[in-house]
Amino acid sequence: MTTPQNPVQVIARAAAILRALQGHPEGLSLSQIAERVGLARSTVQRLVVALGTEGLVAAASPKGRVRLGPGLVSLAGAASVDLARVCHPFLTRLSRELHETVDLALLEHDCVLFVDQVAAPRRLRAVSAVGASFPAHCTANGKALLAALPTEQVVRLLPKTLERLTPSTIVDRDELLVELERIREAGVSFDREEHTHGICAVGAVVVDPDGRLAAVTVPLPAQRFYGHEERLAEPLKRTCVEITAALDSS
After folding, report:
1. Which residues pair with 207 in a beta bridge?
2. Domain boundaries, the chain
3. pLDDT tens digit sequence for 5-26
4. At the top level of CATH, which class does the domain 74-249 belong to?
C-alpha cells in the first residue's frame, strides 16, 4: 500500500525542481534533475508530469530534457504589478520629455518580458506589446539586465549559440560579455538594430528593495537614434535613479 504524500512535501519538492531548472534554458534530463534535488528519478518524473500539465515546465528537446515553462511568465507578470504601478508615472513623464515610447521589462531566463509601456505620440514609433518576450542578448533592456548580473550567472543563463536576428546581432558570447562590461561601466545599454532592422533603443536598470531588477528602455526608429544617444541616455539614467529611490520608499 502506497503511503499518501505530505502535500507540503510535494510542494517543496516541486519548488526544488523549478529551482534546479533555473538558469538552464537548454533544459535538464530527468536524471540530471534527480541528482540536483536528491530525489528518485521516478519521483521527479511524476512531479515533472504534474508541473507540465500546469505549464510550469515544458519539453526542451525530443530526448526528454525539460525546461521552465511559459506558465511561469504569467506568474512573473502578476508579481510585477506593484513594480509597474510605482514605475508607470515615471515612464509617462520620460515619454513626454523625449516624445518616444518607454518600456518596462523583466528578465525571464535568457529573454526579457515586457510588463508595461507608454507609447510615443508619433505616427512613426517603436511599439512592442505588453506580454511580449524578446531574446535578452540582442535588446537594450536585455543587455542592461544581463549587465546587472555576475558574469558567472550570465554564462549560465545564455544559450551556447546566440541567435542572429539581424546583421548587427552579437552572436559571439565572449564579444557579448565584453559589451556587458562596457554597459556596467557606462550604466546604460544600446541596441543598434540588433533585434530589429531599423529599430534602436537605449536601456538602463532599476532595482527594488528586494533586489528585483527591471529595465526601462526607450525604443525608437533608427533615424531618430543615431547621433542622439547621449540626449536619450541622460534623461533615462536620471529617471532610473528616481524610480529606484521611489521603490526604496514605497
Report:
1. 213
2. 7-69, 74-249
3. 577 788 889 988 988 887 676 7
4. alpha beta
